[in-house]
């Protein structure tokens, strides 16, 4: 993957961040069964840094709550993301960062799918296929250079 | 269900993903490899217990994707994401690194010895399939052909059980059949029907049929039609056999199917799936002579492993003994029991 020095989308629209999750009393109660919900998935990925801008994926509206589904019966998580421009060459890297972040933080029982919102990228199907091929994802994250770039994206001051 | 999949033993092989398991041709040793860059050999201790007999951990610098045995059982090959293929040779009870084959640009994904012992095939992300020829005098392998027919990542290779015919599976959704024709290797047939990555394939004992598994969550059975076949199915050049999909098995697998094996002893088909399951299929006896084949699920374990099941291996001597490996770092041994109706 080539990283150009010039950002492709020079003037992206910046969106407001959502409020922090409101902590309920029951959240502190160990007797209440508390399954992972989509808001928690969102909280894991919204602070991922964009590879080009000093902004998060949430601020660029690349990820939002509506793009996330979770099914705790089948242990499946689906994340859809929206590259800021339909020919964004960073799309694979963004998807890989989302995948890496969830791989490192979610319990291993979850089957995670990461896909581009339908129609949001000119190479949508190729990128989706690559992001959901576990062999290629593993190989990419073993690559030192790529892993360093991904780690920069997923390291956040909050975490 | 008219069969049962009985768990015999769990081997805690690694803290990391186990990519591949493979029995040696006499069924006494099981080789495994994975993301921890180690190859382990497992053997029997007493009647029932399998333990790790030796570990080789100084050959690859990245994940080892697969291991394969030569038909004589004296040689072992490993394919690594570090672009290298290592050849190991038996010396007494140990396997010693004999040579390293370099040529692939990046990740090597599979390696396989031909039944004749004359050839070794390798494939990888650089979209190529390499055929290496064994030179007995020099006890070495030399590149005989680089086949670039696939348009994407080549995932897995399988040699015909009797002949020097190679099948390769790819991210380009196809399987290609390669044969040698007057010292030249060429693609004899492209099998196109899957709608996503073909992860693996396997021949039946006769080599006349092939089963494949895919990211599209289906299995397909393919049949070879030799030249001048009764059905009148002709290949493009009229010489090579042409392969046709005769059966699709869908609806069972919930995630990509990473491996499929066709047991030469029992005729059973076993699958390894991303939904943590192992499934066993058996062919139904056809009522009419020319009716297409059909397969039914006779046994399964939907929680065979805690994570994706990556590869399976049928013991070549002990009918019904199956090994599996997973992202959960374990290897499991299973016995398949078929019940009478």
UniProtKB/TrEMBL annotation, chain A:
Keywords noted in UniProt: Chromosome partition
A Gene Ontology biological process term: chromosome segregation
Pfam family, one: FeS_assembly_P
Tagged with keyword Cytoplasm: no
Domain of life: Eukaryota
GO CC, any one term: cytosolic [4Fe-4S] assembly targeting complex
Ranges of residues in domain MIP18 family-like: 39-115
InterPro entries associated with the record: FSCA_dom_sf, MIP18, MIP18-like
Family note: Belongs to the MIP18 family.
Name of the protein: MIP18 family-like domain-containing protein
TrEMBL record, chain B:
Per-repeat ranges for WD: 11-42, 57-98, 101-142, 147-178, 191-223, 302-341
UniProt cross-references to InterPro entries, sorted A to Z: CIAO1/Cia1 (IPR028608), WD40/YVTN_repeat-like_dom_sf (IPR015943), WD40_PAC1 (IPR020472), WD40_repeat_dom_sf (IPR036322), WD40_rpt (IPR001680)
Keyword Repeat: yes
UniProt xrefs under PROSITE patterns: WD_REPEATS_2, WD_REPEATS_REGION
One GO-annotated biological process of the protein: iron-sulfur cluster assembly
The entry's keywords: Repeat, WD repeat
GO cellular component: cytosolic [4Fe-4S] assembly targeting complex
Pfam families the UniProt entry points to: WD40
Gene3D superfamilies in alphabetical order: YVTN repeat-like/Quinoprotein amine dehydrogenase
Function: Essential component of the cytosolic iron-sulfur (Fe/S) protein assembly machinery. Required for the maturation of extramitochondrial Fe/S proteins. Key component of the cytosolic iron-sulfur protein assembly (CIA) complex, a multiprotein complex that mediates the incorporation of iron-sulfur cluster into extramitochondrial Fe/S proteins. As a CIA complex component, interacts specifically with CIAO2A or CIAO2B and MMS19 to assist different branches of iron-sulfur protein assembly, depending of its interactors. The complex CIAO1:CIAO2B:MMS19 binds to and facilitates the assembly of most cytosolic-nuclear Fe/S proteins. CIAO1:CIAO2A specifically matures ACO1 and stabilizes IREB2.
Family, as annotated: Belongs to the WD repeat CIA1 family.
Name of the protein in its database record: Probable cytosolic iron-sulfur protein assembly protein CIAO1 homolog
Native organism taxonomy: Eukaryota, Metazoa, Spiralia, Gnathifera, Rotifera
